[in-house]
Amino acid sequence: MEGSTTQKLNLVQFILSISLALLVFLWSLDLMTSSFHVIGNDTVIKVLAITSNPFISLFIGLFITAVIQSSSTSTSLIVAVVASGGMTLENAVPMIMGANMGTTLTSTIVSLSYITDNKEFKNAIATGVMHDFFNIMTVMVLFPLEYYYHVLSKLSTQVVTALNLSHTPAAKGQESGLSFFDMINGFLIDSVEYKFVLVLVACIALFASIKIISKIISNRMIGASEERFQEVFFKNKLNSFGLGTVLTAGIQSSSITTSIIVPLGATGKIHLSKIYPYIVGANVGTTITALIAAFNKSEAALSIAVVHFLFNLIGSILFLVIPYLNQLPIRYARQFGLMTMQYRVIGFFYILFIFFILPLALIFLHRL
């Protein structure tokens, strides 16, 4: 009886904690959008000037996500900027692609912790970079299509229009239909002289709320499911994909869900071919944050959230369903694992170059 009461209290505490964190998440997005509206045209022009180059936009998304290690946060920020009119849908699409690439850094870094054991290091690196290669290959296919034909931006707009998801704000700066948020944020905007402070506060609240949601749900879900990974969830590709999708949708962090699988791949308990659908599912699951962030906002904001989903969905179809293509990320990950086992410095150089040196160099050169 006492155990049952404790379980009920834990469940109530879990629901209240998640609800409060979600409320802060939605408030921070609304504050950010409203703040961007009143910052001024000069700032908007500067943002547009930087992101007008699709290649720079791609690497800005990659670098920001690599630094904060949360594609959920970076995509939510992008949604807020698009909702405020500070960035066009077409300019934001490459940044979403870059965010997908940047979030793979965590699992790759985790794999380096096995550097003292040759066999485990090879398997760990292969498991970690499989996430990288899936996103890189998806970008290689979809970036040119978006660059020349705007495939993703047009398709996402059609989806939003067809499903009648768009929302027309009642007034400028009042995109959210939540009057409670409007009252609070209106008071803050009128009271605070320097609006960039409000953007900073919103960013901190956004990041903190996502981390809290991630920690609460991961503590509850991962502990309960870890022992059953091999028995149930990795019997076939569908189970593996479903686990990655559901777990990441709940935790709201593909960085966490892909990192926890690295030890199982490193020790050889789960084969790479079974881990791969789980990683692809994690990519799809992480798109739920942007969709929540775009809730009740402009058509452009909803469209960029749908872009995030379509990017991962199309990538999943190409590199998980289609024969031969679905073996490429696994094959290249194995080869990279073997190469890094022989020359360990390659792993460190790969991380520094792909996630930091290359994007920073391109951004810097563009500013000259």
From TrEMBL:
Q: Where does this polypeptide localize? A: Cell membrane
Main localization is membrane
Instruction: Give one Pfam family.
Output: Na_Pi_cotrans
Locate the transmembrane regions by residue number: 12-32, 44-68, 92-112, 124-145, 196-217, 238-263, 275-295, 302-325, 345-365
The record's keywords, sorted A to Z, are: Cell membrane, Membrane, Transmembrane, Transmembrane helix
Its membrane topology = Multi-pass membrane protein
Q: Mind telling me which InterPro entries this protein's record contains?
A: Na/Pi_transpt
Give a yes or no for keyword Transmembrane in this entry: yes
- Name the PANTHER family on file: SODIUM-DEPENDENT PHOSPHATE TRANSPORT PROTEIN 2B (PTHR10010:SF46), SOLUTE CARRIER FAMILY 34 SODIUM PHOSPHATE , MEMBER 2-RELATED (PTHR10010)
* Name listed for the protein in its UniProt record: Na/Pi symporter
Naturally occurring in which organism (per UniProt): Reichenbachiella carrageenanivorans
